[in-house]
Design a protein that fits this description.
Elements: E1 6-14, H1 21-24, H2 44-47, E2 70-73, H3 85-93, E3 97-100, H4 105-112, E4 117-120, H5 123-135, E5 140-144, E6 149-151, E7 157-159, H6 164-172, H7 176-181, H8 184-197
Parallel strand pairs: 1-2, 2-3, 3-4
Antiparallel strand pairs: 1-5, 5-6, 6-7
């Protein structure tokens, strides 16, 4: 997993609430277990009109948002099913951080396991950022994970809270498997001790 410390990037906007994972990555794109190539399905139903043509109003189809690495969005982002393909698709598109007032719990956790930083800000702070992005093309933010701040070009900064364990994992680029493997000697010692204490549990059937 790619480490996350600071990110300065172009901000795209998806001004919608209750964005569910079926819209982030529709079910027809869930056949793969690979984390690449999923950007083609990202918001596929919203990117296109009913006739199949691209919707010029959707952010992914607008020139001003090409290359965005930060997505600014509304309440309860990532609700619905727990599909991990949702953060995979966002990451494959290039999104490394999400800013919203709130996220669905499972999606929130899945982001950290895939190197995406979901940042919860106050609703009025999110609205302030929406206004700024709409007013200025090419609007960029700096997200500083060590200091837990979102910094604007105007010099304003917004503090965000984050669980220390998740923060450390992102900064070091470690997912749950990597963190578990760091404890491999302790795990091996525990298993050896248990074999001595309750040998019948380890007998071949």
């Amino acid at each position: 997993m790619e480490a996350f410390t600071t990110l300065t990037g172009l901000v795209a906007v998806l001004d919608r609430v209750n964005v569910d994972t079926d819209q982030i990555i529709p079910k027809q794109y869930l056949k793969t277990i690979h984390r690449t190539g999923l950007k083609e399905g990202l918001f596929a139903d919203w990117r296109h009109r009913p006739d199949g043509s691209l919707d010029p109003l959707f952010f992914m189809n607008q020139t001003r948002y090409q290359g965005a690495t930060i997505l600014l969005t509304g309440d309860n982002f990532g609700c619905g099913s727990s599909r991990e393909h949702a953060p995979w698709a966002l990451l494959d598109y290039g999104i490394r951080s999400l800013l919203a007032p709130s996220f669905a719990d499972i999606f929130f956790s899945n982001c950290f396991q895939n190197g995406i930083l979901p940042v919860r800000l106050q609703a009025h702070e999110i609205q302030q950022l929406f206004d700024a992005v709409h007013a200025q093309e090419g609007y960029r933010l700096m997200i500083d994970l060590p200091s837990q701040k979102v910094k604007t070009p105007e010099g304003t900064s917004f503090h965000f809270d984050i669980d220390p364990f998740r923060k450390t994992g992102l900064i070091q680029g470690l997912d749950a498997i990597d963190l578990t493997l760091q404890r491999e000697p302790a795990i091996a010692a525990y298993e050896a001790r248990r074999k001595q204490e309750v040998p019948w549990l380890f007998q071949d059937l």
